[in-house]
Amino acid sequence: MRMHDNARPHTARAMLDALETLKFEVLCHPPYSPDLAPSDFHFFPHLKMDLKETHFTSDDEVKRAVTSWIRQRTPEFFTDGMRKLVLRCEKCIERQGDYVEK
């Protein structure tokens, strides 16, 4: 399963063909909604918590730290984020599109 926004690289024919070949189920992302974006309610809060008070001297240092942090996450970390996404989407539907608080 892959969820993405409608940015041009994500909707290019080559990308869509590759996803179909790999048998990925593509979930279209709703218009920006921080309570439904896994990066906003799952990924970034954890990243910010783990890297808070870290002082970087260059963009490359930030990139290395984030890359290292991502590689240290278990598959369960990402699975948990997707599971939470499903629950948030269901709650959003129940609320007829209204905001889903934390």
From TrEMBL:
Annotated GO MF terms: nucleic acid binding
Name by which UniProt lists this protein: Tc1-like transposase DDE domain-containing protein
